[in-house]
Amino acid sequence: MANPGTRKHKADDRAKYQKLASSIVPRPPLARNTAVAFGVGGLICVVGQAVMNAFIASGMTADEAVGPTLATMILIGVVLTGLSIYHHIGEFAGAGAAVPITGFANTIAAAAMDFKREGYVLGMGAKMFIIAGPVLVYGILAGVTVALIKWLSRG
Amino acid sequence: MANRRIGKSTMRFATPPVIVSAGTVAGPMEGRGPMARWFDEVVPDDMFGERTAEKAERRFMGDAVKILLKQAAVQPQQVDYFIAGDLLNQIITASFVAEDLGMPFIGVYGACSTSVQGLTLASALVDAGFANLALAATSSHYQTAERQFRYPIELNIQRKSTSQYTATGAGAVLVGQSGGKVRVTEATPGRVIDMGVKDPNQMGPAMAPAAADTIFNHLADTGRDPAFYDVIITGDLGSVGSEILLELMQRRGVPLGDNYADGGVMLFEGVRGTGVGGSGCACSALIMEGFVWKRMCDGEIRRALIVATGALLSPLTWQQGESVPCIANAIALQL
Amino acid sequence: MDYVIAFLVGGAICAVGQVLLDLAKIPPAHMLVLFVVVGAVLSGFGAYDRLVEFAGAGALVPVSGFGHSISRGSLLEARRLGVIGLFTGAFEFTGLGVATAVFFSALIALVANPKA
What we know:
The complex is a heterotrimer of chains A (155), B (335) and C (116). With 155 residues, chain A is mainly α. Helices cover 80% and strands 0% of the residues of chain A. Chain C has one domain. Chain C is built from seven helices and no strands. In chain C, helix 2 runs parallel beside helix 5. Chain C is globular and about 50 Å long. Chain C starts with a helix and ends in a 5-residue tail after the last helix. Classes of the chains: A mainly alpha (155), B alpha/beta (335), C mainly alpha (116). Chains in contact: A-B, A-C, B-C.
């Protein structure tokens, strides 16, 4: 390899190397991954639908059932994480496990379980939302902003 | 002084120090691989019964040293220097083990290339007459590495096509002036090479150029062909990284032949769920101090070039969008 | 029948996520943030409401539904209470879930250890 020379020389070398590397690095099995994500994600949503129907059958309106349904799915995610099952589902299904709200719950439970070793206050307490945090932050940012715009524009 | 540096960066030891003893302790995953029978101990529980994985990792390193000292019939007080490192912040594993052993301690960090780094320094200290006995050790642990560099263990994360699996275990090696068949003849510390790979899931592609650089320099410095060695083993490029290495060496006009193998591939061959191969400090250590050393003691391998590869990223710089600088350290072992 | 639609819509949303992960090589956390924001934005256009009517849990369970729920709650409470409602409403539908997540995650952390 040439001596580390000018910045352009370095950039050229790197570009050439990236080309070589990408020709050898195997591509992810997109078709298989997408199909599995579809299947597993869909199945989790079916479970959610069953839960929602149960709540509605118990007398709630569709609106009233939203909160409890999400909470139940979150609970399922937490339990499956505690049983050390959810990370296997994640390995298998990728986005099919990450996108449903159960995945959101998994990030919280997984972080809690992991960081408790650094103590319950500074470990678990401080880092519980280390992965889910962005979802909450940007969810609130986007949600409130959109609501504000809509409310101001149409009341 | 008869010691010489040859070529650009290779240390040639005037009176080659010898490997007096080595100790290897591995976890259950590693126990499932084809290299398991070359390890001194395979532990069924990677937590070693400890409360934290960090504590468990110290047990791995400590046990590897204990086994080695017992085999060599050497007391800790007889060891002049302890050179060790690991993957964790502030090489905390090595520091705690050093405290336990009570030997003068030189901490080193080479990421997954630490094993050869330590052996190089230990050999240099013995060869230069600073030490009668120098001990080098390194360790890694799947859980501690995941927590530090990637994600909580129970997180639903999908491995990529180039992901590697951090080896759980430790390797220790004792270098002395006499008392062993395997001689450390040359060492070639590497340069840090960064070819702009930013993805921490692509450690192999990130490290391959460093391995190519060091192997090329070592062969040029020593005036040798790849065929001089019975085996040339990289630490943990993985199957993808080693393919890239072969291509790089081919393009440089120094193709590697059948005597080339990769430690990461060897460690976990046939073990499900380990991606494209093992990684971590323990990977190269287990292969070099378990498999290679024992085969050399048997006379099955006469000349080995071990090229441990390390990705010198930090969890922070990766998140800041920086690329991954890498290094490869080579050491030549001969009967 | 609603199960079939929930399956198809929920699955499709997850499939899009997978394509983003594999093809666009977006880190998982970024993908999830994208989804929650898109859910909130589509909620503003009324589009996500219609999707929920159509697909039920298939639209609510994916994290985009979470963004929608935040947005919707925020809007409903704003209409009812004014500016204060904008912020109290964010957790109208999602508060139960977040509190549940924290409470039971802490509980599970007490009794369960991570296993590689």
